[in-house]
Amino acid sequence: ETGVTQSPTHLIKTRGQQVTLRCSSQSGHNTVSWYQQALGQGPQFIFQYYREEENGRGNFPPRFSGLQFPNYSSELNVNALELDDSALYLCASSQGSMNTEAFFGQGTRLTVV
Amino acid sequence: KQEVTQIPAALSVPEGENLVLNCSFTDSAIYNLQWFRQDPGKGLTSLLLIQSSQREQTSGRLNASLDKSSGRSTLYIAASQPGDSATYLCAVLYGNNRLAFGKGNQVVVIP
Prior knowledge:
- The structure holds 2 protein chains of 2 kinds.
- By secondary structure, chain A is mostly beta strands.
- Chain A has no helices and 11 strands.
- Chain B is globular.
- Chain A binds chain B through residues 2, 4, 6, 33, 35, 40-45, 48, 50, 55-56, 58, 88, 90, 92, 97-99, 101-107, 109, and chain B through 4, 31-32, 34, 36, 41-46, 49, 51, 89, 91, 93, 95-104.
C-alpha cells in the first residue's frame, strides 16, 4: 500500500466541461506530481507542486492547472475538456522535489465523450 | 531531448524462466532511475530505485542494473511466475524534477 490516494477512480465528462481530480499524498511527503497516461503510452509529466508552489511544468496547455494545499494534498483541474484528454491521470508523491523515490496512486480514469 | 526507450515492447515467457527487460535513455545526466510495475488500468507500483551513483539494486527475485555512461538499465526477474504478468515501466529522473518514462515492457508469464 503506497499511501497515495486519488479520487474519483473513474469519471465520464462531456467535451467542453471542466473536471477536478484530487490526490492525497503519502504521509510525510511534501511534493506532488501529476502525470497523464494515454492508452499504450508511458506517463507524461504535467506539473509538480512543492510546498504549495508550482515547481516545474510539462508540455501541457494552460487549461491544465493545479494547486497544492497546506496539508500537501493536491488538485488537478482541466478546463474545456477535449476528447484527447481521455486518459489515466496519475498522482505521485515524494519527500522533497529532487532525487527521491516517487510513489504513485491508483489513478483516475477520465473519459471525455 | 530526454527520451527513454524500452525493448521489447511485449514478450511472453514460460513460467520459471528468467525475465530480462531493457531500458535505454538518451541523456546520461540522471539523478536516479526507477522501475515500476503496472497492472491493467491500475496505478504504478515502485519496484526498485537506483541512484545515479549506484550500479545495481536488488529486492527478492528482482535485480536492476544501471550503466549511466552507456545510458542503459536492465531489470532481471528470476524464476518468473504467472503473477509477474504485468507492464514494467522504466522512469528516469532528471534535474528538471520530472520523471521521463518509457512506454513499458508488457510481460506475460505462461503457466
